[in-house]
Amino acid sequence: MTSNRFWQLNRRPEGSDVSGALSLETEAVPDIGAGEVLVKCAWLSMDAGTRMWMTEREDGYQPPLELGTRMVGLVLGHVARSNDPQFAEGDLVRGFGQWAEYAVVQPELAGLMKVDDQIPDIRQHFGVLGFNGWTALWGIRETAAVKAGDNVLVSAAAGSTGLLACQVAKILGANVHGLAGGPDKCRWLEQELGITRAIDYKNADVAAELAKVDGGIDAYFDNVGGPILDAVLPNMAMHGRIALCGLLAQYQGDGRGRGPEHFDQILMKRLRIEGFFSPDFMDQGAELTIQLAKWHDQGLIDTPFDVTDGIGNVLTAYEKLFTGGNIGKVLVKI
User: Fold this and answer.
1) What counts of helices (H) and strands (E) characterise the chain?
2) Residue 160 in domain
3) Which residue numbers delimit the Enoyl reductase (ER) domain (predicted)?
4) In the prediction, which pLDDT does 262 show?
5) For the chain, N or C: smaller number of CB within 10 Å?
6) Is there a single domain that holds both residue 207 and residue 251?
7) Across the strands, what pairs with 26?
């Protein structure tokens, strides 16, 4: 291939109008500079948190992207050219590149790493063995300190991180409750993942349904924040733990929101709320991968993939993250 197509961020999107903010551009396959690696992308990961990078917000864990530059996201592919001695042509790698057919990567800044190309499905480097799997395991086991017998609640439970968090909690012996939008997702969570109960937040009174959980919620793995968190707080158990890793309810604005309506419950129930991001446990990736791979080989944890074909259809795939149009990990096949 002599050309490269990539998505460029031209303006700050307003609300859900992401398509009006980006354009698909074409160029010659780019050259690379000293220390850089050119990755021929096989798969692009669609992740809701990247929506915040399109805003002007300066105090997030990732600085805002500059206008007129390429949209950044996780890529999985093979090294096409390398000016870094740690990476050779043909290596299968994962890291932060661009929404592009060919991504120019600075390995240290992009967290670029070689991954196993001998596993049956390399997509699992974006699934069980990827950042979603790491986040699920770290958030459930470390941040929320889940133990056997706990009542655990997971929001966005049919999403790429949520469904893995449900499975990790189940492996650890917890009673797992999940929040998802629509009866099909709830049925899938109960029948396919075997969680204790799924609640349809679109068609049920979430607070009333959570009030039925005997003993309250010991640990809440929160991907969304917003009104769902408001419904959860009064139904937490004493000394409950909340692991907050996403704010999906706020990503289409400027990433900010008002404090929870039931803030007083944090004191009254002696709750602990802790936010966590993948940079917090990047240095633990090898250990997390070993544990997740073991469970995956044992058939205890898995993830489905929602695949869209072609660089030109990236925005169709991305939209699913915010409309609830997917079960599992949303990927674009290049």
Assistant:
1) 10, 16
2) yes
3) 20-332
4) 86
5) N
6) yes
7) 5
CATH of the domain at 177: 3.40.50.720
Per residue in 98-123, pLDDT (tens digit) is 999 999 999 998 899 999 999 999 99
- Give the residue ranges of DSSP H helices in 118-224: 131-137, 162-171, 183-188, 206-210
Transcribe 106-146 into DSSP letters: -HHHHT-EE--S-SS-GGGGGTTTSHHHHHHHIIIIIIS--
Residues 243, 274 contacting (CB under 8 angstroms): yes
- The alpha carbon dihedral of 115, 118, 119, 121 has a sign of positive
Q: Which residues pair with 200 in a beta bridge?
A: 180
What's the sign of the alpha-carbon dihedral 169, 251, 192, 278?
A: negative
Sequence-separated (6 or more) residues with CB below 8 Å from residue 193: 163, 166, 167, 170, 178
Q: What angle do CA 297, 161, 139 make, to 5 degrees?
A: 90
- Tokens 């917090």 belong to which residue? 280
Are 120 and 135 members of one domain? no
d(CA 203, CA 213): 18
Domain hosting 257: range is 131-279
Alpha carbon distances (Å) from 310 to 93, 101, 282, 334: 20, 9, 30, 5
The verdict on residue 178 lying in a domain is: yes
**235-246 core/surface letters (b: 16 or more CB in 10 A; e: else):** bbbeebbbbbbb
pLDDT category of residue 58 using cuts at 50, 70 and 90: low
End-to-end CA distance of the chain: 13
